[in-house]
Amino acid sequence: MEDKKKIKSDYGADSITVLEGLDPVRKRPGMYIGSTSSAGLHHLIWEVVDNCIDEAMAGYADEVSVRLLNNGIVEVADNGRGIPVERHKVTGLSALETVLTKLHAGGKFGGGGYKISGGLHGVGVSVVNALSEYLKAEIHRDGKIWEQEYKIGKPLKNIKAVGTTKKTGTIISFKADQSIFTETEFDWGKILDRLRQQTYLTKGITINISDERPKHSPKKYKFYFEGGIKSYIKSLHRQKNVKHDTVFYIEKEINECKIEVALQYNDEYNETTLPFANNIYNVDGGTHLIGFKTALTRTLNSYARSKNILKEKDENLTGEDVREGLTAIVSVKLPDPQFEGQTKGKLGNAEMKTYVEQIFGESFSMFLEENPKEAESIIGKCFLSAQARLAARTARASILRKGALEGMTLPGKLADCSSNKAAECELYIVEGDSAGGSAKQGRDRRFQAILPLRGKILNVERARLDKMLVNNEIKNLVIALGTNIGDQIDIEKLRYSRIIIMTDADVDGSHIRTLLLTLFFRYFNPLVTNGNIYIAQPPLYQIKKGSSSKYAYTEEEKNKIIKELGGDVKEEETAEETEESREGTEEETKNKKSKKSADKDEEKKSKKLFIQRYKGLGEMNPEQLWETTMNPASRIVKQVTVEDAGKADIVFDMLMGDDVSKRKNFIQTHAKNVSNLDI
């Protein structure tokens, strides 16, 4: 009891740490930008650009420029009003310094600065300042050029006028703090994709991007799309066959909220619906997406009934039926968006469901009446989907029995783990029985399950659900996961928190991995967005010198290890030689072991290096497979994520779809960039 009292008395006011100003951001950067990896690094650019877009949405700017400069500096400029520079009566600082050094300070709270903005929380540019080793703000306003510099969030000097100008606008230049971020190299392609998307979503704005880094070839782009999200739909359908030529589009305001919807159907089986609120992509949807889906299903059913296409005895088309082959963008702009968290993954404003449902429903109904040919193509597509759904229902009923989904009748090939706690369990999907045998022997049976695949699974990009469920390998995988599949997936029933794809490091292994990723992206998408899918990284080489042995996962790592170990490369053990060493009689095996033992001392003294190139997982014995690829303490696994659903959809369609010419063109364009290619 005395010890407890002593512990309690030590906990007083002095134990409470107060982080002032921008200190909380530097202490816990992940709370504000998601991570300190590449995604968080690029988030700095998005935060500054979002402020420029806010000026454009408010009608004060029509041009934004982003420049990647020398030494990791990024410059973002707009031709808006310019951040105010006069003294702020509450803080006693200039308005500029207040915005850059105080969290939750900006023109987005009181209603006087912006009616509509993406940066709801008002922490964007101050967070960028906090996480930058250097930041410079240049303001063009009231005929003067104002300037102020910062270091790690602290002003180096007071704001001052350094010249005169006839322009207005804001220029923010910053360099990310290398002590905060694990990655400091900006990805040109990622920036290009994001800013192209923002240009589509803000009709009438021009965005300029230039790469002026010395180590990169100079590049410049200018984006301007008069059609806005209507142009976005056409862009997403560049490599697809559309069912109707006319893109449906509606733009309307209601109670200070702006609703924009564009859609078009293609001849594929997958849906791509991208919801945005104040130009922010809502990965988890929200009320605006619910309103859109409700109105779409109701309107198409009403039209089919009114034209007697759906008879009185017929069932209504379902949401799944009317969204097959749909590409749609739902973009809303509203004064007071209620998001879930700083990442803004889901919109929560209840009124947006009503607004979108009403405006889109009325407009789409009119579109169908005025465009009978387009309406016929859309309804025909929906009816084909309904027929496939009924066939899939029968297929599901035959294999996805209640007992199977609850784990009572698991596939015979599945070597399950002993734990029944999904949070600690992982499933290895392994290529072939040979690798499956090594994995089963080398695994930790407590929490690691193994499911070997026989050959290559069906390419689901070219098949509907009813055809897929006939495939035994897919059937076994669905039962093993326990989640069901497609629109009936229930992630709460997932039996393993990590699903790890483990294939050979060759062309066939890459193909099998791509087929599995296509399956997960198209029919188990919640597992991808939830971060449950991983790719194992087996080593390419084993490098031995004497009794020491090291593994290399890349060519560069192999060369580094060779340099570290020193000596000369004696020979490369081929896959065939390795296999032969495992065959033969028991007596031959004993003789080999005896010879190795006799030569052991001599080998230790040798400067020769022995290199084995692993062509397949089956070449590794269980101990090696555990040590290199399956041991959580030493393995390397890559988590599969999707940053841009629209772009991912295009890539899967191109690589796995029916159009060979698109795939051939892609291969010819990127062939020179492929590394570790075995022919």
Structure commentary:
Helices cover 39% and strands 20% of the residues. With 679 residues, it is α+β, with helices and mostly antiparallel strands. It folds into four domains: 201 residues, Histidine kinase-like ATPase, C-terminal domain (Heat Shock Protein 90, 2-Layer Sandwich); 168 residues, Ribosomal Protein S5, domain 2, CATH 3.30.230.10; 151 residues, 3-Layer(aba) Sandwich (Rossmann fold); 55 residues, no CATH class. The strands form four sheets. Strands 1, 2, 3, 4, 5, 6, 7, 8 and 9 form a nine-stranded mixed sheet that branches. Strand 19 and strand 20 form a beta hairpin. It is globular. The N terminus is likely disordered.
Please state the structural category. alpha+beta
Unreliable stretches (pLDDT < 50, length at least 5) are 1-19, 107-112, 401-408, 571-590, 598-606
What would the principal axes of the Cα set say about the shape? globular
Provide the helix percentage.
25-40%
The biggest beta sheet reads: 9 strands, mixed
CATH topology of the largest domain: Heat Shock Protein 90
Mean pLDDT: 83
> What is the overall number of helices?
25
How large a portion of the residues is in β-strands, by DSSP E? Answer: 15-25%
CATH class term of the largest domain: Alpha Beta
The CATH architecture classification of the largest domain is 2-Layer Sandwich
End-to-end C-alpha gap: 73 Å
C-alpha Rg (nearest Å): 30 Å
Q: Report the CATH superfamily of the largest domain.
A: Histidine kinase-like ATPase, C-terminal domain
* Whole-number tally of structural domains: 4
